[in-house]
Design goal:
- By secondary structure, this protein is α/β, with parallel strands linked by helices.
- It is built from 16 helices and 11 strands.
- α4 packs antiparallel against α5 and α13 runs parallel beside α16 (about 365-390).
- The termini are far apart.
- About 25% of the residues are buried.
Length: about 400
């Protein structure tokens, strides 16, 4: 029996020792993992745990963003519009950090968030790291300048000449917003515009604006500081050109004389015909001067745009605040069309001339009809000269 008691005592002692060993081992393991975990935390970058510190310089909180954003009714965010740079992009983060140190203070402008100034060194840094500058800074804006008239005066030629300039971005087709499509709204209109960089100007041309009664008020609602360019031409020649264009589309059109005069015997000019009415420049300008000061207008001579395109383009570039880039070297005179064309750019097979619709031969008009029209327009022309301070020499 004594042996049995001793054996049981040794067995109980062994079990207790085994439990103590297990507990000690668990404590050691727990302590090891605890120190490993705390050591990992200390060695990790602080940004992993301090979200507010990271975003204080680079991101805009929801509340701040809402305070800075213009009214959604006026300037809703457009898909693809520039937004504050995302510093979490590890592939471009270093480049953005270098660029951000040079970019001036950000401000809201029409179309999105853009820098006031983009230093050349910033552009170089972005380009060197594969970041397209155009995608970073471009936005759509309302036009700062519009060619508002007149039809068959040379507006298409002027726009094409202007588009040579690197600081001009223009809509190719005529939007007809302020005369026909105004109900579509200003945001629809702005979305038609091309994207521009800071320092570039947005333009469009719709010649019928000049003779549309509602256009000045509507345009001023958008921006009363818009610069307005009017290309004018001898109203008699302009009317014949207008008729020629319509005749090419409607071969059965009555004669020019029957449309221009109410009847042959009296020789009274029919001002209800649009081709005649458009040439009353003084009356149309009066309507515009009710909403815009004369200083906001530039009147371009359609005749001089043909005879001296570089000279007229110099005046236009000055008016728009552009460096004189378009010059004599860009033009040559096409004897066949009787119109200046743009010299071919490098790599192009032929020069750029206006389409077949430009430079059409005019029909023969009797001298008596031409004289009646000149007598009719003379007082309106003289009045227009006084209003603009320019003598276009149409008499």
């Amino acid at each position: 029996m004594g042996c049995s008691v001793g054996c049981r005592t040794r067995l109980n002692f062994g079990k207790a020792l085994s439990k103590v060993s297990v507990c000690f081992t668990m404590v050691v393991i727990f302590t090891y993992f605890f120190y490993c975990f705390t050591g990992l935390c200390d060695s990790a970058p602080r940004q992993m745990f301090d979200h507010h510190t990271v975003n204080r310089d680079y991101d805009i909180s929801d509340r701040t963003y809402d305070n800075l954003r213009p009214s959604a009714r006026l300037y809703p965010h457009q898909p693809g519009a520039p937004t504050p740079w995302n510093r979490t992009d590890t592939s471009t983060g270093a480049a953005l950090h270098r660029a951000d140190e040079q970019v001036a203070k950000l401000q809201w402008v029409e179309g999105g968030l853009l820098p006031q100034v983009i230093p050349e060194s910033t552009k170089e840094n972005l380009a060197a790291n594969g970041i397209p500058v155009s995608n970073t800074f471009e936005s759509k804006k309302f036009p700062q300048a519009i060619i508002i008239g007149v039809k068959k005066g040379g507006t298409r030629a002027l726009l094409e000449f202007l588009r040579i300039h690197p600081d001009v971005r223009a809509v190719g087709a005529e939007p007809h917003f302020f005369d026909r499509l105004y109900e579509k709204g200003l945001e629809w209109y702005r979305n038609l515009m091309p994207r521009t960089l800071e320092g570039q100007i947005t333009m469009e041309k719709t010649p019928s604006y000049f003779v549309t009664k509602e256009a000045p008020r509507r345009l001023c609602t958008m921006n009363c500081h818009t610069k307005l360019v009017v290309v004018v031409r001898d109203p008699v020649t302009r009317a014949i050109s207008d008729y020629t264009q319509t005749l090419s589309k409607q071969p059965g059109l009555p004669s020019f004389q029957s449309l221009a005069l109410k009847n042959t015997s009296t020789g009274l000019v029919d001002t209800s015909w649009s081709a005649v009415r458009i040439g009353l420049y003084a009356k149309h300008l009066e309507n515009w001067l009710q909403h815009f000061p004369l200083s906001h207008f530039l009147f371009v001579s359609g005749e001089r745009l043909v005879s001296d395109p570089a000279g007229e383009m110099g005046r236009v570039q000055d008016f728009l605040g552009l460096k004189r880039v378009v010059s004599d070297k860009h033009f040559y005179f096409n004897q066949t069309k009787g119109f200046p064309c743009l010299k071919k750019p490098e790599g192009s097979s032929r020069p750029r001339c206006l389409g077949k619709s430009k430079g059409r031969p005019h029909p023969q008009i009797s001298p008596e009809v031409l004289q009646r029209l000149r007598d009719f327009y003379r007082p309106f022309n003289l009045r227009f000269y006084r209003m603009t301070g320019q003598d276009f020499g149409w008499d």
